[in-house]
């Protein structure tokens, strides 16, 4: 069974960029994509902390983007959108929370140490520079992200508080 989260991370990142696009320009897109990728990677690692969790994900599937599209009013072009079936609503919601709240992202990064996943750099997510901030003005806007972030924020907060309480 696969233990790779790449399809879910890629689909969730793409969904976020489609729903909350960066300003025009290749650099803006690349910077926004890096931030969305770091947020969805961290969220996916927290959502599926063990190899067994990832195997179950591949067995059952993540659920798709239909509800997220409905909440944001997105009307995606249905041609070539097979990737949308790999969108995980919880991962996107948690990523939205992490993008909108730096303190929450820092706590989530610390919590990820308890998972089976290797830690990777999250500099653009946790400490964005000026160019990062300009490229992700829509992607990190708390009011715009709220309809998505609110879906599964309580579960993320509970997970982070439970992990923090369990550490010495």
Give short descriptive properties of this protein.
168 residues; mainly alpha; 9 helices; 65% helix; globular
Number of helices: 9
Based on helices, strands and strand pairing, what is the structural class? mainly alpha
Helix content: 55-70%
Query: What's the alpha carbon Rg, rounded to whole Å?
Result: 15 Å
Domains (count):
1
| N-C termini distance | 35 Å
Shape: globular
Number of strands: 0
Describe the largest sheet: none
Ranges with pLDDT <50 over ≥5 residues? none
Mean pLDDT: 89
**Helix and strand succession?**
HHHHHHHHH
Beta-strand level of the residues, as a percent range?
A: under 5%
Short description:
This protein is mainly alpha-helical and 168 residues long. It is 65% helix and 0% strand.
Report on the architecture of this protein.
By secondary structure, the protein is an all-alpha fold. The chain has one domain (6-166). It contains 9 helices and no strands. The chain has helices at residues 6-19, 26-47, 51-60, 66-72, 89-100, 102-111, 123-126, 130-135, 142-166. The longest helix has 25 residues, at 142-166. It starts with 5 loop residues before the first helix and ends with a helix. The model has no long low-confidence stretch (mean pLDDT 89).
